């Protein structure tokens, strides 16, 4: 069946090859680049960032090579509100957000998909490394590039209108294909880190927006071992950049154990104190087949996978791990899998 497909083209190699494959399959494809920054010239330093003037030009050139119509949609205001401001607010509350996950949820598969359907398109295609089969999300064949975790927040309805053409290909295969198709982005570096923090300085970015407020760094017993200029600049599991004045008695490194925004206190301690086996999550979303056997959970993008059991209690999702995990931070997503299939996700609220 021939579909009308809107191909989201970031200006990178993945989305260009995804659009080319959909067009070659005989569908009616239109390319769209999302302008997410009001000042895009400042958003790339080497491979850092995305959504720049350079990226929009690369996307347009790719669309020309493929032979499809191309448009630019201005999503800067929506991106600022739903992704950037959410990111700042989450850190201010002592949580650690994932802006890529939020962008997929609020921009690419809410704002963009809603507009695409209103314009008569049947689906949105992206260059994500993941698979959708019969409306069910699952992992890519390339474990190093798999992006099912950051797509785990999508609803079944959204997944029914999503196409991920790269799910059966490795990144190396995608680059080779791009070169064979004459796409100039074949060797373009992947963007990384947080796209709206081009220099990679998250603490500096947050300090400009939340200001500086000196507070204590304390150990597990409450003894002050250092100071900081804002608890919002830290995340659970962090080891570097703590500026601790007094070394631990055993000489081992300290890690951030907790962040208390109200008292502006950062608590540090040994790595062993980071270990948790029970995680309580809020806002559970079930977007795949129900399962209780051989279930695993991923707690960070490209993070480890843990065997687990789960149950819903009073609207919350409680996940018990088969072995301890470290660095589990409130605000991150817990994505549940049965084998390689995503069955649901939720936002981490606390862990013990």
Automatic annotation (TrEMBL):
The keyword Transmembrane helix does not apply. The active site is at residues 103, 195. Residues 145-147 are annotated as: Interaction with tRNA. One of its GO terms (molecular function) is tRNA-uridine 2-sulfurtransferase activity. Keywords: ATP-binding, Cytoplasm, Disulfide bond, Nucleotide-binding, RNA-binding, Transferase, tRNA processing, tRNA-binding. It is found in: Cytoplasm. Belongs to the MnmA/TRMU family. This is tRNA-specific 2-thiouridylase MnmA. It comes from Nonomuraea glycinis.
């Amino acid at each position: 069946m021939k579909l009308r497909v809107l191909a989201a083209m970031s200006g990178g190699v993945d989305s260009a090859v995804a659009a080319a494959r959909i067009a070659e399959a005989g569908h009616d494809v239109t390319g769209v680049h999302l302008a997410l920054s009001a000042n895009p010239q400042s958003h790339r330093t080497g491979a850092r960032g995305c959504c720049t003037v350079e990226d929009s030009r690369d996307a347009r050139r790719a669309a020309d090579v493929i032979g499809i119509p191309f448009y630019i949609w201005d999503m800067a205001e929506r991106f600022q509100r739903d992704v950037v401001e959410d990111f700042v607010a989450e850190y201010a509350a002592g949580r650690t957000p994932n802006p890529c996950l939020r962008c997929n949820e609020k921009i690419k598969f809410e704002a963009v998909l809603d507009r695409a359907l209103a314009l008569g398109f049947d689906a949105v295609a992206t260059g994500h490394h993941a698979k959708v089969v019969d409306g069910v999300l699952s992992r890519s064949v390339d474990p190093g590039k798999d992006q099912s975790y950051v797509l785990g927040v999508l609803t079944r309805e959204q997944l029914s209108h999503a196409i991920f053409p790269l799910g059966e290909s490795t990144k190396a295969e995608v680059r080779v294909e791009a070169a064979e198709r004459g796409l100039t982005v074949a060797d373009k570096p992947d963007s990384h880190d947080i796209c709206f923090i081009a220099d990679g300085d998250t603490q500096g970015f947050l300090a400009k927006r939340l200001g500086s407020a000196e507070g204590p760094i304390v150990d597990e017993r409450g003894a002050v071992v250092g100071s900081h200029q804002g608890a919002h600049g830290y995340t659970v599991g962090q080891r570097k950049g703590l500026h601790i004045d007094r070394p631990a008695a055993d000489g081992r490194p300290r890690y951030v154990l907790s962040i208390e925004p109200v008292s502006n206190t950062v608590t540090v301690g040994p790595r062993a104190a980071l270990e948790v086996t029970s995680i309580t999550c809020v806002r559970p979303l079930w977007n795949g087949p129900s399962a209780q056997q051989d279930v695993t959970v991923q707690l960070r993008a490209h993070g480890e996978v843990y065997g687990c059991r789960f149950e819903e209690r009073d609207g919350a999702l409680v996940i018990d791990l088969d072995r301890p995990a470290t660095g589990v931070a409130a605000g991150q997503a817990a994505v549940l899998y049965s084998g390689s299939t995503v069955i649901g996700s939720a936002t981490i609220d606390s862990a013990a």
